[in-house]
């Protein structure tokens, strides 16, 4: 396995299975495959991913193929976002590690999460999350097939969209502060998340902006210098500038 002290973090690409949406993303992955960077996907990489055969689209299978290949050469981590369901449970073997909610790196010093559960005031979403991710619902969705289950999932997501987006526009500062207090008690130095679609840094908590191909920023953690920073992804691969 290639060893590099730098880890790339990406969140909220919200890809769909069209060339306009996905071609640039896979170009980005190709650049990573030619480098020695590690990579962690912090959720909502896809607009919707229900990880059963009947629901999955070519874009999901293409992504899984890349991850299975590249985990032999670098760390490939995956955290489910609020638009991805059962990926860690069903496709965990495609990644170095995969998690449904949180994961820690550097012996517990770095906490990773998608961020969708930070705002405790977003009650309807939290109920929806529990409903969609329990084993009974998972079985129902699997048996229902895409004709019913996928339409139901999209209807619920769209029904919550306006409310959820309203919460995303305003950072829940008091809950961020509560999270920062918990981090201090556990001696965690860094927490990385996505979900809110815009960058924020507060007491060791860093939110990544939503990624896009043209000028999307990614988070980078350099373990050698213990430094985290945001940078346009093209800056990591100088030959891509101006393409």
SSE series: EHEEHEEHEEEHHHHEEEEE
Which geometry do the CA atoms define? globular
Tell me the strand order in the biggest sheet: 6-4-2-1-12-13
Q: How large a portion of the residues is in β-strands, by DSSP E?
A: 15-25%
Determine the fraction of residues in helical runs and give it as a percent range: 25-40%
Query: How would a textbook summarize the main sheet?
Result: 6 strands, mixed
**Distance between the amino and carboxyl termini:** 30 Å
Tell me what the structure shows.
- By secondary structure, the protein is an alpha/beta fold.
- Helices cover 37% and strands 21% of the residues.
- It is built from 7 helices and 13 strands.
- The strands form 3 sheets. It has a 6-stranded mixed β-sheet. The protein has a 5-stranded mixed β-sheet with strand order 7-8-9-11-10, with helices on one face. A two-stranded parallel ribbon has the order 3-5.
- Helix 1 (19-33) packs parallel to helix 2 (58-70) and helix 4 runs antiparallel to helix 6.
- The mean pLDDT is 89.
Q: In terms of topology, how is this protein built?
A:
Blueprint: E1 6-10, H1 19-33, E2 38-41, E3 49-50, H2 58-70, E4 76-79, E5 84-85, H3 87-91, E6 97-99, E7 102-105, E8 110-113, H4 123-132, H5 135-144, H6 146-169, H7 173-185, E9 190-193, E10 200-202, E11 205-207, E12 217-222, E13 227-232
Parallel strand pairs: 1-2, 2-4, 3-5, 4-6, 8-9, 9-11
Antiparallel strand pairs: 1-12, 7-8, 10-11, 12-13
């Amino acid at each position: 396995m290639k060893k590099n002290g730098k880890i790339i973090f990406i969140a909220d690409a919200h890809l769909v299975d069209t060339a306009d949406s996905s071609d640039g993303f896979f170009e980005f992955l190709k650049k990573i495959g030619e480098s020695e960077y590690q990579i962690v996907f912090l959720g909502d990489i896809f607009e919707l991913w229900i990880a059963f055969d009947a629901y999955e689209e070519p874009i999901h299978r293409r992504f899984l193929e890349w991850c299975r290949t590249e985990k032999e050469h670098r760390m490939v981590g995956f955290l489910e976002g609020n638009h991805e369901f059962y990926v860690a449970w069903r496709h965990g073997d495609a990644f170095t590690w995969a998690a449904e909610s949180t994961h820690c790196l550097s012996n517990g010093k770095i906490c990773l999460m998608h961020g969708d559960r930070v705002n405790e005031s977003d009650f309807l979403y939290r109920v929806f999350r529990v409903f969609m991710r329990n084993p009974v619902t998972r079985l129902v969705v699997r048996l229902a097939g895409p004709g019913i289950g996928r339409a139901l999932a999209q209807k619920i997501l769209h029904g919550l969209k306006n409310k959820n987006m309203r919460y995303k526009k305003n950072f829940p500062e008091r809950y961020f502060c509560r999270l920062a207090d918990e981090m201090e008690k556990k001696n965690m130095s860094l927490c990385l998340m996505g979900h809110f679609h815009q960058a924020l840094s507060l007491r060791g908590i860093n939110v990544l902006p939503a990624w896009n191909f043209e000028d999307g920023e990614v988070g980078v953690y350099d373990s050698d210098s213990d430094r985290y920073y945001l940078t346009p992804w093209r800056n990591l691969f100088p030959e891509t500038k101006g393409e």
